[in-house]
């Protein structure tokens, strides 16, 4: 997942955005789990009695996972955060899958929901036609509301998962850059093996005074040597008998 600089278009992901996202996930898990067991039965729901507790447990587990996310962000532990991201995705998929199954079961058992509605709200009514009409409409309205809420929360959770996952990607990239910097410094410190690297040291030169090389002697022309030395030119020897 590509790292994101901002969350919700204006909030910096580091660190305000990721903390706000984790708080939202924690709050959603607690609220959804509490509402599933603390509110009166829904007219359109036609599931077994333990269904709400299954959904509540999943929501509370998801809320508890956010504590792991807080710790991994606060302590900059990328491996722990990666595990949190995986578990968060799995528990989110489990919650939405269970909710989708409950909605589908309620829609398929519309007659049961209608009968429960009539027995609960119109047991002693004198107008059975009114009870029949209202209890036929309200379950479908509840099904539509539950399906719409499911889609809305699914879109929101998808976006927040992208934020959570992208933060993990950025966190791992930062750790890799930091580790690579440490490796480069270590290689510079040990560039000469057992001798520490000195950036101001240069190649070694002889400590004694500099001496120019002495040219090798060579044989010159005698005439040139005498003339060059300032002497006179040699005279020719007289011929014998003159």
TrEMBL record:
Q: Which UniProt keywords apply?
A: Membrane, Transmembrane, Transmembrane helix
List where the protein spans the membrane.
53-74, 86-105, 143-164
Lineage: superkingdom: Eukaryota
For region Disordered, the annotated ranges are: 202-231
Q: What is this protein called?
A: Transmembrane protein
What are the top taxonomic ranks of the organism? Eukaryota, Fungi, Dikarya, Basidiomycota, Agaricomycotina
